[in-house]
Amino acid sequence: MEIMIDSHHRFIFICKGFMDPIGGAQYATSKWIQSEVEYIQRNYNAEIILISFEPHRKISKLKLGYLISNKIKFKIILNSNLPLSYLSDRHNEIKLAKLIKNVNFRNGSTNYVFLHCYNFFYPRLSLPKNTKLIMTFHDAIFEKYDSNSNNLPLFQQLIVKLWDILAFSNKKKLIQYHNFNDKFVTFHALSLQIKRDLIKMGIKPNNILLASNGLDVSEIEDRRKRFPVTHNLANLQLLSIGAIYPRKGYHLILKSLSELYIKNKLPTNFKYCIIGSKVPILTFFYEKYLKRLVNEFQLQKNVNIIVDAKYQTILSMLQNSNVFLSPSISEASNLSLIDAISNGLIVISTAAGDVFARSKKNSKIYIIKEMDKDLDMILSSLMKSKRITIANFSVSSWQDQTKTLFMHIGI
Question: Which residues, other chains included, contact 182 with Cβ-Cβ below 8 Å and sequence gap of 6+?
Fold first, then answer.
């Protein structure tokens, strides 16, 4: 059935699907689309179409509730027979081509298509003329696994490398396919690292917009009320948040903490909690490996691993921890880093993602080269201070970042 759009501009959003607002690329996708749609509704009399690739049975008011509650109206086009394809985007491309044909693109006006890519969803689009494509990458272009995977069992190294090869192959095909017209394609990079990777892939810098993830204005205002935040490091509460798979580097932290504990450089009652979501295949093996390390290092009383925690659990841990550890080997834009900063945690992080940009505007962010080798120096120095106060934080809002995006596009 043909979908009629009466407004001058046409806005179509394409993503793999939504999930409950816990974190990660799915959450960032939801927040960007939510903010982009709100901007459009404030400025244009436009009907918005969302093409989602979640099977029909997985769409519910619970999953879209935080969007519906903000009175964002979508036309949702679903194909209940479409399985998620992790190994090839060709299946998605065929389905998308059929769906896009059902949209009545009128001549004489500009059409805008927002494509949000992550986790093996990198479909090439056959779009009509007078269409501007805005492509957002929610994961890293080049996954830097080498130094990470060398510390893993051989079988996991092989899985990780296969995962990396398949993902990069699909990203490369998508970028090269759409890098054909300077005027009609904007590549939206969530971090300086992604921008550099896109340039390495041959994209011209003026076709790339750097606009990072953020927080809602209301979240920023609410979290500012907690500041200044003072930490008593005699009660050392360490926290990491992110998907449970090798690129996050949690095993490097466990090895480092074990060495510090043996050397009596940590309080005997220190706690380290890893909270993360599942990644198909990788989480199953990696979680087992992490638990084996915990037992091997005799850290059962100190370390807790929580998979697929509820948002309230994550929020509670953020408010009751004092040091946030981000050992990622590669990142697009670390959402959990934003949560840590805005909750007043001391941050120790590798240089992945947009941590350098965050460190310029926020205090007590320590950037180290390798988590398993350099954590000792930073933690030992912090423990000497006993009490550390963080006065405030600086994080942009989704709304401001969205305005920057639309100004760059020229809408």
Answer: 204, 206, 207
* Those residues with Cβ within 8 angstroms of residue 22's Cβ, 6 or more apart along the chain or in another chain: 277, 308, 309, 310, 311, 314
User: What does the domain layout of the chain look like in residue ranges?
Assistant: 10-214+397-409, 217-390
**pLDDT, tens digit, 9 for 90 and up, residues 300-352:** 999 999 988 877 888 899 999 999 999 887 777 888 899 999 999 999 998 88
Q: Quick: pLDDT tens for 205-227.
A: 888 999 999 998 999 999 999 99
DSSP letter for 4, please: P
CATH of 10-214+397-409, one of 2.60.120.260, 2.40.128.50, 3.40.50.2000, 3.40.50.970: 3.40.50.2000
User: CB-based burial of residue 386 (10 Å sphere; 0-12 exposed, 13-18 middle, 19+ buried)?
Assistant: exposed
Parallel, antiparallel, or unpaired: how do β-strands 229-232 and 303-307 relate?
unpaired
Instruction: Classify residue 230 by its DSSP letter.
Output: E
